[in-house]
């Protein structure tokens, strides 16, 4: 069977990625597995590394890069959104607060689904809202499990610290009190894809007067339960 697409450089890049599917490879290993000339294999591997589709392990060998996992997670977004509606509605009903689902996009986070309070003071975050990754409990969740280099960059100018994110990883949830917006508190937990990578954050938010200065005590378990339901849905659909 001819696997050629007619676009030579893409066919060769696909060969490199396929060769790495079975595990780490040295440049010599890539040459042997792909049949490519050594300079060609090196040039393609380095170019794919630039786009984070290839990375290096501690021994300097080539491995599949984090961008592939990110693309795979995005492929599951429709399934995530299809499940999010009823989960967020239930979360809103049990907490009495607005509920949101955020995904990271570059240096920002986007509200991709929400369930608003039906009455009273509403602290709305409309679907499609783009918020910074520098403040707020959802930003903490989307940042906490990042690879070290990206985590270090993301902490520059952030309202939270590496120590705070260590606590988030230990607890499995995050809270913020007036961090993104004065007078507003929130609690968030991670949604994980089939590879266990954090792909989204589930949140509830409302005025500090209602959520208090310890919002996690009130709502962490409900938010964790909602995130677990979405995680299960993604894993069942994988």
From TrEMBL:
PROSITE patterns in UniProt: HTH_ICLR, ICLR_ED
A Pfam family annotated for this UniProt entry: IclR_C
HTH iclR-type domain location: 7-66
SMART domains, A to Z: HTH_ICLR
InterPro entries to which the protein is assigned, alphabetical: GAF-like_dom_sf, HTH_MetabolicPath_Reg, Tscrpt_reg_IclR_C, Tscrpt_reg_IclR_N, WH-like_DNA-bd_sf, WH_DNA-bd_sf
This protein's UniProt keywords: DNA-binding, Transcription, Transcription regulation
Residue ranges annotated for the IclR-ED domain, each copy included: 67-236
Name this polypeptide is given: IclR family transcriptional regulator NdgR
Organism of this sequence: Streptomyces lonegramiae
